[in-house]
Amino acid sequence: MQSTSVPARREVTPLELFFDLVYVFAIGQLSHQLLAHPTWTGAVQTLVLYLAVYAVWAYTTWAVTLVPAEDPRTRRMLLAVMLVGLFMNAAIPRAFGDAGWVFVVTFLLIHLGRTVWLLRVGLDRREQEHWRRVLVWFFVAAPFWLTGAAADGGARLVWWAAAVLVELAGTLSAHPLPGRRLDSRQVTFAGGHLLERGRLFMIIAFGEAVLTTGAALTAAPYEPMTLLTAGVALTGTVALFWLFFSRSEHIVRHYERTEAPYGRGAAASTASWPPSPE
Question: Which residue spans traverse the membrane (predicted)?
Answer without folding.
Answer: 12-31, 43-65, 77-96, 102-122, 134-151, 157-177, 198-219, 225-245
